[in-house]
Design goal:
With about 230 residues, this protein is α+β, with helices and mostly antiparallel strands. The chain has helices spanning about 15-25, 65-75, 85-110, 115-125, 130-150, 160-180, 190-205, 210, 215-225; strands spanning about 5-10, 30-35, 55, 60. The chain folds into two domains: about 5-75, Glutaredoxin; about 85-225, Glutathione S-transferase Yfyf (Class Pi), Chain A, domain 2, CATH 1.20.1050.10. The protein has a four-stranded mixed sheet, covered by helices on one side. Helix 1 (about 15-25) links the parallel strand 1 and strand 2 (about 30-35). The protein is globular.
């Protein structure tokens, strides 16, 4: 068996995405956590300075999509993308949408909503000394809100972002109606990428009841690999 180490923030949907792929592939691994002030060490892991980073038998891979592609090459079954060209294209488009668009809605719902923020900060600092939480409670929201404003979602009012999320949830529900999966007839990278974003909203956000009130989505989430 390969020696596999996942460097992660447990709260990150991208780290969750990689954990799910590792679970789907049946790859044993261990994690190194960068919660709290340990996050400073993430900058030394790769040129991008971001997590997740995967060490696989001495080879280091950064970026969740690159890691998933790498794992799919090393462990081809079950495949992360459908064999059908149209379904494969849809799977890749949905993965990119989850990573580059839905992600910012997820960040807004966890870090720009005052009543939700304490839970998100607790997760960011899980396992770390309590005084580190005080630092992150001041620094993290400001940093993430700047990121959200630069991207554009942070400039929207709360009710508009909630409407966008609800519309996304309805569209996901519609896509699931045909086969129970987003692209093709089995779990693919589309399901793992989109599901990872929704699961983080579900465990932290005040909009979790909207997810739980969508039976087809709840069933689909229950069938995704653990992560």
């Amino acid at each position: 068996m390969p020696d596999v180490v996942l460097h992660q923030w447990e709260i990150s949907p991208f780290c969750r995405k990689v954990r799910k792929v590792l679970a789907l592939k049946g790859v044993a691994y261990r994690t190194v956590e960068y919660n709290g002030l340990r996050a400073r060490g993430a900058a030394r892991l790769s040129p991008a300075g971001k997590l997740p980073v995967l060490d696989y038998d001495g080879e280091r891979i950064q970026d969740s999509s690159a890691i998933c592609d790498f794992l799919d090459g090393k462990h081809p079954s079950p495949a992360l993308v459908p064999a059908d060209p149209e379904a494969r294209a849809l799977a890749h488009v949905l993965e990119d949408w989850a990573d580059e668009s839905l992600y910012f809605v997820e960040v807004y719902l966890r870090f720009a909503i005052p009543e939700v923020l304490p839970t998100a900060i607790d997760l960011l600092c899980a396992g770390r000394p309590r005084w580190e939480r005080a630092i992150f409670a001041l620094a993290a929201p400001s940093t993430l809100r700047k990121k959200l404003r630069a991207q554009g979602t942070g400039k929207l009012p709360r009710d508009r972002v909630e409407q966008i999320f609800t519309a996304h949830l309805e569209r996901i529900d519609t896509l699931l109606a045909r086969t129970g999966w987003l692209a093709g007839s089995a779990c693919t990278i589309a399901d793992i990428a989109v599901g990872s974003q929704l699961e983080e909203v579900r465990r932290t956000s005040h909009l979790a009841p909207r997810i739980d009130g969508t039976p087809r989505v709840v069933d689909w989430l229950s069938r995704l690999p653990a992560g």
